UniProtKB/TrEMBL annotation:
Required cofactor(s): Zn(2+)
Active site: 138 (proton acceptor)
UniProt name for this protein: Deacetylase sirtuin-type domain-containing protein
UniProt key word ATP-binding: no
Family: Belongs to the sirtuin family. Class I subfamily.
Protein source organism: Xylaria multiplex
Limits of the Deacetylase sirtuin-type domain: 8-270
Section covered of the full-length record: 9 to 288 of 440
UniProt key word NAD: yes
Binding site for Zn(2+): 146, 149, 170, 175
One term under GO cellular component: nucleus
Keywords assigned by UniProt, alphabetized: Coiled coil, Metal-binding, NAD, Transferase, Zinc
Length: 280
């Protein structure tokens, strides 16, 4: 095998070459990593995009700085801004995108090893990705508990409190602590499932990253765990992380839904994906 093909697993650094690689059967352990950019087409703003990003639109909440809305110390001091935002972001009002459906299709085809997501919108679950193949690295709105004694808080009760943007207190009267969804705030530990699966990216034979600035660690370190020679495909508006530094990095810089549709068409999965998405 000549030297120059050793590092280039792909025929060239294009979406079509990745499709060829998948069709060749050499991608059976695909690891997908997603951020807020995969859900913007669903109507959920991301965090850092200029103008539309959440952190540029929280002035109405009178925060010391935008990230404070997700900081545990600020939440203890004043939980109201978070609950105002929670009302806007709460799952149930949004529909999975074609990109979410693509991840579910990979799972259906037994090609998905794991999905790591930073998102708290549960759209991956709604798209039909099997829960055992999802690592919600920053938690989600799915459950909630007292931040002091950790006693779980009832779901139905929580939905009412979020609807009225009124922060609930612990079910245990003698505690009375504030209740927060199981979203990982700045200053909090990531869930155990993240650390239990943190070496999974080393098993990948293809890594696909969608819609993230790769600014927040330790999640941002995941793409670097891919072994040399394993193709890494980025669907993002901008270049992020260390993408582009490896011979088998493929960068699609644009709307992720367009890039994923291009990959899916090259794979010949277009009809199957559209049908699956429509039925969600
Ligand atoms: N198509 C492709 N890329 C997109 C799209 C889109 N439709 N919309 C946004 N993007 C890109 C943006 O250009 C940006 O690079 O997605 C990325 C989103 O980055 P962030 O807003 O920083 O979101 P994310 O990376 O998920 O943030 C990580 O930060 O605030 C914390 O815990 C929070 O999980 C979050 C973490």
């Amino acid at each position: 095998v000549s030297e120059d093909t050793k590092t280039d697993t792909l025929s060239d650094r294009s979406v079509a070459a990745v499709a060829e690689f998948i069709k060749s059967g050499r991608a059976k352990q695909i690891v997908v990593m997603t951020g807020a950019g995969i859900s913007t087409a669903a109507g959920i703003p991301d965090f850092r995009s200029p103008n539309t990003g959440l952190y540029n639109n929280l002035a109405r909440l009178d925060l010391p700085h935008p990230e404070a809305v997700f900081e545990i110390d600020f939440f203890r001091y004043n939980p109201r801004p978070f609950y105002v935002l929670a009302k806007e972001l709460y799952p149930g009002n949004f529909h999975p995108t074609i990109s979410h459906a693509f991840v579910a299709l990979l799972a259906k085809k037994k090609l998905l090893r794991m999905l790591f997501t930073q998102n708290i919108d549960c759209l991956e679950r709604a798209a039909g990705v099997p829960p055992e193949l999802i690592v919600e690295a920053h938690g989600s709105f799915a459950t909630q508990r007292c931040i002091d004694c950790k006693t779980p808080f009832p779901d139905a009760e929580m939905r009412k409190c979020v609807e009225s943007a009124s922060p609930p207190n612990c079910v245990r009267k003698e505690c009375g602590g504030l209740v927060k969804p199981d979203i990982v705030f700045f200053g909090e530990q990531l869930p155990n499932t993240f650390f239990a699966n943190a070496t999974v990216p080393r098993e990948a034979d293809l890594v696909i990253v969608v819609g993230t600035s790769l600014m927040v660690h330790p999640f941002a370190g995941l793409p670097r765990l891919a072994r040399d020679g394993v193709p890494r495909l980025l669907f993002n508006m901008e270049r992020v992380g260390d993408f582009g530094t490896r011979a088998d990095d493929v960068l699609y810089l644009g709307e992720c839904d367009d890039g994923i549709r291009k990959l899916v068409d090259e794979l010949g999965w277009g009809d199957e994906l559209e049908k699956m998405w429509v039925e969600l």
